[in-house]
Write a structure and sequence with these properties.
alpha/beta, 247 residues, globular, TIM Barrel, binds 1,3-dihydroxyacetonephosphate, 8 strands, eight-stranded parallel β-barrel, 16% strand
Length: 247
Amino acid sequence: MRRKLVVGNWKMNGSLAANAVLLEALQAGLDADSGVDSAVCPPAPFLAQCQAMLAGSPLAWGAQDVSANAAGAFTGEMAAAMLADFGCKYVIVGHSERRACHGESSELVAKKALAALAAGLTPIVCVGETLAERDAGQTFAVVGEQLGAVLGLVPAADAARIVVAYEPVWAIGTGKTATPAMAQEVHAQLRAQLTDKNAGGVQILYGGSMKPDNAGELMAQADIDGGLIGGAALKAADFLAIIAAAR
Ligand code: 13P
């Protein structure tokens, strides 16, 4: 049985004061033995705050992006080793907002995943189709290419150390969720692709308007191992309710 994992992607939200309130509420509401893994991914300037407030708690933390490079003249970028220095366990790579707004290719995303693994971090590799791609019947080709780029670059022995997040672009921040059956269909394909690389045990998260009222049904699907949560991760009660639904 794979453990469930619920990760909050705070995107570009938060402040020292607001985060302190949110993190305190999350810690107060989290059960150390819940059997569910959980983490928050704040904007990078707040990683030190997470390290100071969350060390020793069951709530892990991670970053939203990482450089493919180890060090040097890459203004504005953050190396995986730096994220590890701040206690990160996870780093999101290839979020659709970065693919769309920053032109990140699957090849670059794969290099970022490789850099994360080399520093001992767990990359959360995001894949997902746009509405136009779904309507054109390209969903499986698109997510297959996105995951395939990572599995093609990462050494075979490390493939099992990644996490995958299926986030249909049309479901992000729109209130439109994939039905559990639609999500499961894609997750099953991703599972098969991972199993081909001896990585069938990898956690595959669903993301896209996951809320307390739909989380249980989504995570009850055979190949949905948790959630990557945007908006609902900014409200302690909602995020805790999603973690509870993962049990
Ligand atoms: P929402 O939960 O706000 O739809 O965002 C999902 C997401 O993009 C998480 O990475």
